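Supplementary Methods S3. Complex input for the thiamine diphosphate-bound model.
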Amino acid sequence: MTDLSDLGSSAFWRVNPKDADPQETREWLNAFDALVETEGRERATYLLRRLLDHARKRRVQLPPVLNTPYRNSVDLVDQPQFPGKLEIEQRLSSIVRWNALAMVVRANRAHPELGGHIASYASAADLFEVGFNHFFRAGPAGEKSGADGGDLVYFQPHSATGVYSRAFLEGRLSEAQLGHYRRETGAALPSATGAVSASLAHQGQGLSSYPHPWLMPEFWQFPTGSMGLGPIQAIYQARFMKYLAGRGILDTAGRKVWAFPGDGEMDEPESLAGLSLAAREGLDNLIVVVNCNLQRLDGPVRGNGSVIQELEGLYAGAGWNVVKLLWGSDWDALFARDEDGMLLQRLHETVDGEFQTYAATDGRFNREHFFNKYPELRARVAHMSDEDIDRLRRGGHDPVKIYAAYHTAVNHRGQPTVILAQTKKGYGMGHWGQGKMTTHQQKKLDVEALRAFRDRFSLPLSDEDIEQVRFFKPAADAPEMQYLHAQRQALGGYLPARSSAAPKLAVPAPSQFARILEGSNGREQSTTMVFVQMLAQLLKDPALGKRIVPIVADEARTFGMQTLFRQIGIYSTLGQLYEPEDHDELLYYKEAKDGQILEEGINEAGAVSSWIAAATSYSAHGTPMLPFYAFYSMFGFQRIGDLIWAAADSRSRGFLIGATAGRTTLAGEGLQHQDGTSHLIASTIQNCVAYDPCFGYELAVILQDGMRRMLAAQEDVFYYVTVMNENYAQPPLPEGAEAGIKRGMYRLRLSSLGGAAETAVGTEHIPRVQLLGSGTILREALAAADILEQEYDIAADVWSVTSFTELRRDGIACEHWNQDHPEDPRTSWVEQCLAGARGPVIAASDYVRAVADLIRNWVPGKYLSLGTDGFGRSDTRAALRRHFQVDAQSIAQTAARAIASSRA
Ligand SMILES: Cc1ncc(C[n+]2csc(CCOP(=O)(O)OP(=O)(O)O)c2C)c(N)n1
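Predicted complex, serialized as structure tokens:
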């Protein structure tokens, strides 16, 4: 048996183009069969491989092959002329490298607990710089600018120092700001122009550790700090841009999405989650550049293998255009002389753990251990000095090769491109950092190391500059500076830059939803149905209708949204290539190039990434959109909570609709489906406005107000609203309830036991309780009030709590205010509501008790919370509510006990 392990994961894609000459094909196949029979499979494999290599040499196009040799994809003969001034670019990148490094070293010197990363940007610097000098197009986002709106770049988060450092040279960040890297509280600092931006004035102007639009709203567009979220968001952003174009909303042709993940980051499931969608949808507006420095934080990414070959197989298998950018120009001559394939063989047998060692060692070591293994290779580098060997660059450090790869990528049509760029971690940090196992966390460099760095990159810095770790910026008329500005001007301006300039949209007045506000006239209906009804109405709105982006993850039918399939169509880049099975039905499954629904399949991460793209379209595209992503509430915050956190950081504006929500409302689905916590998690996200309404009119008031706040007032908030699948009669909006619905609670029922309901005067002798209910459990509270009055002679007032979260925020805001303004104190809405209300307060929701506990600080007197703590399980609603003690009986008993104990 031959050892096939050296074949790696090579495999052919099965593509079957039309056969131009079947007779000839048969002869070839017969010959092949004869070969296998007479000479055996091993020989056949060998010959196939030779044939492929030979074809490649003859530049015959091959069918897609998952793995190609360990060399650059762009052949020397196809390499475009480098259009830049290489020497100036090298000087510029050296300066950017220095300031990035200085930022970290200075922060760490001043405050040892601060710091940052040096080694990652050191590896990514040239990849970024070639982008900045030649490719990343900037431009005003906006409905009018359309195709000129510029590129969208998702930067590797911990290489942010390099982006700051470049912005410093560009005059967009000041030295004071660089000096406050990772120090973001305190007074605002003057920017490079001397001005303090209004939007930053209240929050200081230190530079955030990673890209955070929340903290640097005029700079960063996309938060990438949590590994894996950058790559998936980039894919769905590119897809959303095609969607905008497909629907005729915005011409996005010519604009690209670039993403720069690390090779270690590719182990995150989200990094790979969108690959097939990207290929399927032909996202040729997307370029992913994986910085393959072969290391992650702890050590090598694939010490015993090859991360580049592995990623090549994955991307190629998914249908991407894969461009390997492995070796710098100095290797060209070596490859040219590699007729016997010995160099390639040596590269193939080297695992990444060894490549890392070669990065950490010098030319002499590399000669001895890499080249000298085979006499043929030893002879081939005999004319080179150890220094020459040391200078053999990896592809990701050679602007000429990087340019060639990027050029190929931007001109490729029909597929997304991934560039697998081989680099060295800690490039240029000598034996202090380059290729070292511990380099990721290196924050300190002593003066000797800094001096060596200066010499390595020929920086014009004095010994004193080095000792003081001074930032360096050439004079405005220096050739580097002129070049830098000229290149950026040619590309449309500077980047990254975040804009929030977008038209304000008028939203329908509350009266437009009269049908919902009037109630269902006794007809039983779930709030999910009310939501769908409202959505259908909004879709018909002449102004707003086209802005709506309904998103589902294969649950439209569960939520009764299937009527929308026919009405507005499902977006598909291909339209509909088949006659749907239900084509003769009125509401058939319609896919269309201008379809409005994004049907993401069973893919919450993808669906919420689409939602983020739509919810930030006002910023990235100057084109406000209004996404509604409806999902099983359990598979939202719990499952893809980190993406929602990124959505918050991104200043998303849109609706997340947690459907079939609650732990007991969704009766039969059991432990994994029944959600008792999403509102608790939602409460932790400061710009997430969460509501758990019970009635259709509450939902209508909330959605209308949400639209007003996000589209008309342009507040940076997003909404999480839970809707249920429990059917009941929907009452009409009680007079004057709107304000309370929005603020989080209002009194729904004032007990009339023993006296006039309006005043409750004269009922002081009757024991009284305040029942708070939210979501469908409000109905249990109403029933509990009946029980209390009828069976216990206890008067019970009932309050609908639409949002414990908003009530809490209001309470906290009042406390903050009162801290600073003792002379003019404010009273929280909970305190205002319950000021005259007598008796213990009992709250119940379909979520864990901690949700109701959120308002404990502001509830006067005794406060008892009921909730659904523990795992969900299947049973009838009634049985489940009894089990969790949130049914009417349990609420009534709790209230009665509270009264009894207060008497005792
Ligand atoms: C979800 C998540 N997990 C862990 C981290 C911490 N972290 C930051 S950078 C890093 C290593 C990144 O390695 P790689 O992607 O190879 O990039 P490199 O720094 O080598 O360029 C880790 C583990 C994170 N930021 N996000």
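The two ends are 88 Å apart (CA to CA). The longest strand covers residues 286-292.
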